[in-house]
Design a protein that fits this description.
The protein has one domain. The chain contains 7 helices and no strands.
Length: 168
């Protein structure tokens, strides 16, 4: 690679704020449990608003299922059966089977990271500060493989009831 090409490639990243820096740090922080590191890594490159609202929607659905809210199972299965990119499915399956308390705790943790990321993005946009381009992590906007069939009364596995932290 000649020097001019190298300078051009580097210039894309000079004097630009990396909106994903907190997610990158969280994804390699050994102080975070593995599921949190995976969640942070899964959100890298996602649109600022889409990632936040998708996480909130998923967390709410999981919370509602846990609380026994009418229609919550259908809502969760519709999210997992949506014909869009796999981001929400990715988040859910990172946490599936870990216990509902940990699932909710980890989703709320990610939600807070993404909320702070969104606030920073908004302030930078108002000040017209350049940011690094977000590299879309998904190749296509449709699912890559089978999706969940919406079901208003799916069977909940043991992780919804036998979570060891529920007894605390």
């Amino acid at each position: 690679m000649d020097e001019e090409t190298l300078v051009m490639k580097r210039s894309v990243f000079i004097n630009r704020f990396d909106l994903d820096i907190t997610l990158r740090d969280a994804s390699v922080d050994l102080g975070n449990r593995p599921t949190r590191r995976m969640l942070a890594a899964a959100a890298i490159g996602m649109d600022v608003e889409d990632s936040y609202f998708s996480t909130v929607e998923l967390r709410e659905a999981v919370e509602w299922v846990h609380e026994g809210v009418a229609g919550a199972k259908l809502k969760l299965s519709m999210i997992l059966g949506n014909e869009c990119d796999d981001f929400q499915r990715c988040l859910y399956y990172i946490l599936a089977g870990r216990g509902v308390v940990q699932m909710l705790d980890d989703l709320m943790w990610l939600e807070e990271l993404l909320k702070a990321r969104g606030k920073v993005a908004g302030k930078l946009a108002k000040r017209r500060v350049a940011t690094m381009p977000l590299v879309k992590p998904y190749v296509a906007s449709e699912p890559d493989g089978p999706v969940v069939k919406p079901d208003r009364d799916f069977r909940q596995g043991a992780s919804w009831y036998l979570d060891p932290t529920l007894a605390e």
